[in-house]
């Protein structure tokens, strides 16, 4: 069985190495970590009495073809929703975006980094406010494909 400290170490190595999917088997326990899955596509894995893994379907009954994806912060910094103070935001809830559309700016050490949507879809929620400090990999937007 993998203990919590070992699991945290595996997750940290996965994050540092930019690994999107990892399958680990150790002493009869199987762990699958997959960052590419959306919340709707995620299955809950629960071990049974004989260490087999059972799949539990997601709790939400939404259209499987309409995935919700997160746009995450590429770094620690300050979130800006518009190109300059007083200007209209790059995007708002309900806006349609293309993969290369700029959705915000994250400023770190006087470097202003434009963040692109990464996928085509509709902005369904802005998760942070203008001027908020954001962490690396923190979700900024939810986009429905």
UniProtKB/TrEMBL annotation:
SUPFAM superfamilies: Single hybrid motif (SSF51230). InterPro entries: AcCoA_biotinCC, Biotin_BS, Biotin_Carboxyl_Carrier/Decarb, Biotin_lipoyl, Single_hybrid_motif. Pathway: Lipid metabolism; fatty acid biosynthesis. It comes from the Bacteria. Residues 68-144 form the Lipoyl-binding domain. One of its GO terms (molecular function) is acetyl-CoA carboxylase activity. Keywords: Biotin, Fatty acid biosynthesis, Fatty acid metabolism, Ligase, Lipid biosynthesis, Lipid metabolism. It holds the Pfam family Biotin_lipoyl. Coiled coil: none annotated. This protein is a component of the acetyl coenzyme A carboxylase complex; first, biotin carboxylase catalyzes the carboxylation of the carrier protein and then the transcarboxylase transfers the carboxyl group to form malonyl-CoA. PANTHER family: OXALOACETATE DECARBOXYLASE ALPHA CHAIN. This is Biotin carboxyl carrier protein of acetyl-CoA carboxylase.
């Amino acid at each position: 069985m993998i203990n919590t400290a070992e699991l945290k170490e595996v997750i940290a190595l996965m994050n540092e190495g930019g690994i999107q999917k990892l399958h680990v088997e150790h002493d009869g326990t199987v762990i699958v970590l997959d960052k590419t899955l959306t919340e709707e596509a995620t299955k809950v894995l629960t071990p049974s009495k004989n260490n087999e893994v059972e799949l539990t379907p997601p709790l939400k009954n939404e259209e499987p073809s309409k995935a919700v994806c997160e746009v995450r912060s590429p770094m620690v910094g300050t979130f800006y929703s518009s190109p300059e103070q007083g200007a209209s935001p790059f995007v708002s809830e309900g806006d349609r975006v293309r993969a290369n559309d700029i959705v915000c700016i994250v400023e770190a050490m006087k470097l202003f980094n434009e963040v692109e949507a990464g996928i085509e879809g509709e902005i369904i929620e802005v998760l942070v406010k203008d001027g908020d400090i954001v962490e690396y990999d923190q979700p900024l937007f939810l986009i429905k494909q």
